[in-house]
Amino acid sequence: LSLLNDLELAIGGNQLTVHYQPQIELQTGQVIAVEALVRWPLPDGQLIPPDQFIPLAEQSGLIIELGEWLLDTVCKQIATWRDQGLGGLRVAINVSMVQFNHDGLIDLLAEALRRYLIPPELIEVEITESVAMRKPEDVIARIDQLKRLGVQVAIDDFGTGFSSLAYLQRLKADRLKIDRAFIRDMGTGETSIAEMVINLGHKLGIRVLAEGVEFPAQAAILRSLGCDEAQGYLYAKPAPAELLTLWLQE
Ligand code: G
Ligand code: G
Ligand code: G
Ligand code: MN
Ligand code: NA
């Protein structure tokens, strides 16, 4: 309860922070986007990872307030990058089940885009495969609303759930993110799931990004399998915007 109270104060007091992790186009090595990942800094400088407070925020409903704060912060950052000559960098934001189902989601996004004059295609909404599969008709309707607004949609942690081909075709997602468990398995020669997801995505006209790429050998295999994009420690860890800006300007 006290943690929840502290989290509410941290959100209201603008004490949370966002780290950004680049997403790389495998053929060119170009940075095409970044994923926003929230962190909670303690007074001693230690960072609490999202795993330790997002579930609590989700259960309590505080995730709505956190999501509003995150979207405003991300849009402000996109405007800053535009002013620094780094325009065109898309930012992927994680949206939990409660946020995705919340009635205010579309208005919230539209309002933030308008406030900072941001082209909608520079925002991507990530939902996990398990959220995407919960109530098929509702999810399809919500993704249609997001697409009409012009934002992109990614299915996160893909491969861990049980999406059917027919359902996936109706979802109209822009991107599948192969769960990093399957990228880790590539170290033992097990590439079949990654290969299957890449082929599935391409059959349906959906781009495919590999998560958790840590070694050049994984990137090489993914490139040979035709995977479009990658994200992971091989390229960069999630970092504060200022560090990422320096890295991008190199
Ligand atoms: O770096 P990593 O520990 O950042 O992230 C752990 C998990 O926390 C990820 O699975 C991610 O989906 C989730 N997460 C990170 N930032 C956010 C956020 O702003 N909102 C939501 N809903 N989840 C987030
Ligand atoms: O939203 P999602 O669950 O995909 O969040 C991505 C998570 O993966 C974050 O916790 C992020 O810090 C973490 N991550 C990003 N790149 C790597 C990587 O190369 N290896 C590992 N082990 N974790 C990573
Ligand atoms: O320092 P860290 O463990 O986050 O670095 C992970 C990888 O990300 C490095 O091997 C490097 O390829 C890349 N990286 C991190 N920081 C920078 C940077 O400031 N400039 C460049 N060019 N690459 C970086
Ligand atoms: Mn994610
Ligand atoms: Na993921």
Automatic annotation (TrEMBL):
<protein>
    <submittedName>
        <fullName>Diguanylate cyclase (GGDEF) domain-containing protein</fullName>
    </submittedName>
</protein>
<feature type="domain" description="EAL">
    <location>
        <begin position="1"/>
        <end position="250"/>
    </location>
</feature>
